[in-house]
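Page 37, continued from 36.
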């Protein structure tokens, strides 16, 4: 929530009020990133979706190819957009006979910025790894799960991160580190971040009784640690005491 000063409007003039002392509450909408749509951070149109595809590979794509890779967009809309990008110079039309193939112009002055935007997900993952590398209490396993891992985030989606700590880790220190990471990821993306933490013993043999752990094993995006270790641990038979 932010306050903003009222301009010299008719209400202020009619009542001899000074705009300098009049304040009103303005609700600032929440903003967040959809990791699967990196260009939506700067443009919500199909242009960004096309550039995101072309930036990842050096091959040429037809309109039909692009339509297969960009769900929900019509061939006519993609054709119109890609022709506009060709006119602007950021995309090259690789005409072969009567077939138009489109490729990112990697010599364009904007190409480095386009490629960087297309790689936002990798950049986020590396920032998380770098932040955790400085921790006093290091986790055994870290993964992103939920909509951020599946690639179906909405603008209101959280970023869910699971962190498995060693059994002998100091709980207060680990939780403080985790809280700091959540604050950083929120600043990097605009998304609320929901860390989920377990001690190693807490996940042993829990695959059938904890659906969240099962979903992490099935579709999580590992950042630190071995996925095979995680899957083996949650399916391991607990040792009786």
């Amino acid at each position: 929530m932010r306050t903003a000063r009222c301009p010299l409007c008719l209400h202020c003039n009619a009542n001899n009020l000074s705009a300098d002392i009049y304040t009103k509450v303005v609700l600032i909408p929440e903003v967040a990133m959809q990791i699967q749509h990196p260009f939506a951070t700067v443009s919500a149109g199909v242009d960004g979706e096309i550039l995101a595809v072309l930036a990842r590979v050096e091959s040429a794509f037809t309109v039909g190819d692009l339509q297969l890779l960009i769900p929900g967009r019509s061939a006519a809309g993609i054709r119109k957009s890609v022709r506009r990008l060709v006119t602007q110079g950021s995309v090259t039309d690789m005409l072969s006979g009567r077939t138009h193939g489109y490729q990112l112009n990697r010599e364009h002055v904007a190409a480095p910025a386009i490629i960087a935007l297309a790689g936002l997900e990798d950049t986020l993952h590396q920032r998380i790894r770098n932040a955790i590398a400085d921790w006093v209490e290091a986790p055994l396993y870290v993964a992103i799960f939920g909509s951020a891992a599946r690639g179906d985030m909405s603008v209101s989606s959280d970023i869910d991160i699971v962190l498995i700590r060693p059994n002998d880790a100091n709980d207060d220190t680990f939780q403080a580190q985790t809280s700091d990471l959540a604050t950083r990821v929120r600043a990097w993306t605009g998304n609320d971040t929901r860390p989920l933490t377990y001690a190693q013993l807490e996940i042993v043999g829990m695959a059938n009784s904890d659906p969240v752990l099962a979903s992490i094993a099935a579709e999580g995006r590992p950042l630190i640690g071995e996925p095979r270790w995680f899957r083996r641990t949650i399916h391991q038979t607990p040792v009786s005491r």
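Residues 1-30 form one domain. Flag for discussion at group meeting. The chain is about 45% helix and 20% strand.
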